[in-house]
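seq:
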Amino acid sequence: MSSDDRDDRSERTDREPGVDADEVPEIDEGRYLYCLVQADADADLELTGIDGEPVSIVVEDGIGAVVHACEGIYDSADLAQVRRWLVRHQTVIDEASERFGTPIPFQFDTILRGDDERVREWINDERATLERALSGLADHWEYRVEVVEIDPVDDETLIERDDRLQELHEKIDDSEEGTAFLLEKKLDQRLAAVRANRRESATDDLEERLAAEAREVHSLERSPSASLSDEVADQDDDEGETLCRLTLLAHEDDEGAIGSILDDVAATDGLEVRFTGPWPPYTFAPELGSGEQTTDGGRQP
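struct:
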């Protein structure tokens, strides 16, 4: 359920690859959850999921869970293998989205203990939340935006533009070694504050413009820690300095208007805009139940 670069949802089983075998919970019978969709009783899916497992849809009174049967979590120290699993996880969600519309997506390795009947029971337990979420998210998708300064402004230019920085710079040149050292510390702090203010200003301005077209806009960390949930959505380069990263929930009909706003930003010399989506609304999906704690620190519904 989320990006990112993407909230600590109660149903998530988010783990680093290579968990010690003794820490992996045993599951006699379970259902690996890809997503939830609005579906008729006779809906079916002919897909293969992670490791070629046959995917099915368990429907209970208009709500379908896209699943495959499993007997354990997916864990590997091989990052290439984890990536293959993750890409297949996303592919199944994408294909279900094309068939049934906007889903409630689950993070990689979310597993419900039990059989199809247990899935139906769980859907009924969460029905009020699920119906509200599926209705509210219909035809809405998540988009990711990153604004990067390809040629960041250097310290000398910032000093020229800021009176306080100029003053400190001049004092350093005229001071003895000990005093100059302290003034250089102040200069570095001021430079960091000026850069932070530039980023905040750029973020606030862009958020305000995007909020006029999107239903929700949220700021993300500029340098997110690596996580499995961002592997597919974010394929970023390391060039330049990231000014801001945003995630937004928007109706599919408003994608063009959002693109126009980002085109204006990209027209600014030295700026590059990275725009990805539409993605299933991971960041904007609801929390579902308190979950059942697993031995590896993740949760299951």
